[in-house]
Please model this.
Amino acid sequence: VQLQASGGGLVHAGGSLRLSCVTSGFTFARTAMKWLRQAPGEGLERVSTINGDGTWSHTIDSVKDRFTISRDNGKNTLYLQMNNLKPEDSAVYYCGCKDIRGQGTQVTVSS
Model:
């Protein structure tokens, strides 16, 4: 199983980023996926989850009006659209499935 997240970067508050996670080694379309994040000195937080066919998702309250999870099963790719970013969104973002977490991508939001 390989999970490779990308799309992070440095943005000003109010900006947007779109994270991508390219996957391989498993049946993506049958697997629920999630985005997690970890800020410095903090624990791992599950941000958003989506089921295999994309018909159900859940996003934590603190970001649900700004972040949207989606997937393209034809491309075995998971996405996280992040709008109106805030400094408190700064973290390393990871994509994951089951108990597996890939390499993360750094998101830094300046005030």
User: Anything to note?
Assistant: The CA atoms of residues 33 and 97 lie 5 Å apart.
